[in-house]
Amino acid sequence: MSRDHAMRAHAGFTLPALSDDTSAPHDEHRFILWNIAILLISALLLTMLSRDGKIDFALADLFFDHKGDEFPLRDLPILATYGHTWLKNLTTLFWLACMPLAIASFWYRPLYQWRSILFKFVIFAGCTAYVVQSLKSGSPHACPWDVTQFGGQAHWFPLFDMTGATSTDGRCWPGGHASGGFALVAIYFAARTTRPTLALSGLLLGLYLGCLMGLIQMMRGAHFLSHNLWSLWIVWAVCFALDRVWSAIAQRALGHHK
Predict the structure, then answer these.
(1) What is the distance in angstroms between the CA of the first residue and the CA of the last residue of the chain?
(2) Domain range spanning residue 186?
(3) Entry's Pfam families (predicted)?
């Protein structure tokens, strides 16, 4: 039993397809089925959460001062500067730093074994950022601090209900800041078949940072809970789709070499 397998067995759980045994189609099929099932079920639950709005507003109300008619933590330096600007820059710099490393792997031998992981992470994480920002830039849904219930001028309306789309340009769904942390989940998809320990670490780091960055924005009144959860869903869905495409290309290339 490999060291990574022993660690996972000792932990008492197994993540699908984290094995470095690339000749295990059963594990790969299970990985695919689990992801499809989780994405479909979570999409249904998130749609219900987003359309109902009660939990979103109840949580946002915890950080809203009705007497002052404002979110008092909105401009608090520890949240606005360190929690928003600095964390955003940190995750962006990490992604940017991986780009030259991926390119350098073509001639710097110590990086050769990391080439696939580096390129997959750069591509997967970059695509998640592009998709989230594209959806956000065209979204009619407003941020908590902009809706009438919290002193703003915009009208809240359920997700996928376009009757209120003309009330505001919104541009607040899904949560962009949280997606920067969740994008590190791409490490899991990049390393899951070759370096399972790194994959698990990347998964936990991405979930932790995404949740932290999402919570910071909720405290500031910048996003509802559902905005951040949808960011995680989109990041995971994009990474899973790219993982399937990458695997198909790799299998085809392997077939040509045989």
Answers:
(1) 29
(2) 27-62+78-250
(3) PAP2
